[in-house]
Amino acid sequence: MKFNLKNLNPGTWFTFPGQDEIKDEEKKAKISLRIASVEEIREVRAQTTTKVVEHKLLRSKRGPATPHTLIYNDKSRVQEKEEQELLWDLAIVEWKNLEDSAGKPIRCSTANKLALMGGSPEFASFVAEGLVALAEREPIEDEPAKNSKSSQNG
After folding, report:
1. Which domain holds residue 116?
2. Stretch (H or E) spanning 150
3. Looking at the whole model, is its pTM more than 0.85?
4. pLDDT tens per residue across span 96-112
């Protein structure tokens, strides 16, 4: 198996439906999607999550109040929206031959990705279906000997 170390997580192309009459593959509307890497998801969550530190005195019936520090992550609705938008931007790598209602090409930019994902249920549904298809790919099977009970027991 070969890996491109300069692009370890390339996109996979999906052709939009309803283009059967277009014979030239290069003229069909397509979108390149990918699943964000674990590290990218961590970065997005770190960027869109607020660390909260609360100092409280907890009282007990038997003795004096005891100071406690609570540390947890919190996310506002604005941060949740920002996280979703960053993940959409990562998932949509590029597109080809996407046009607006006047027939003008739609440039693949963050603003256009977010406008289409937020405003076009048809586009958002197609992207979601593509991402599900990528996530549900068959796992790579190991050689039978590696999965047998005798090899796992030593």
Report:
1. 31-136
2. helix 149-152
3. no
4. 999 999 999 999 999 99
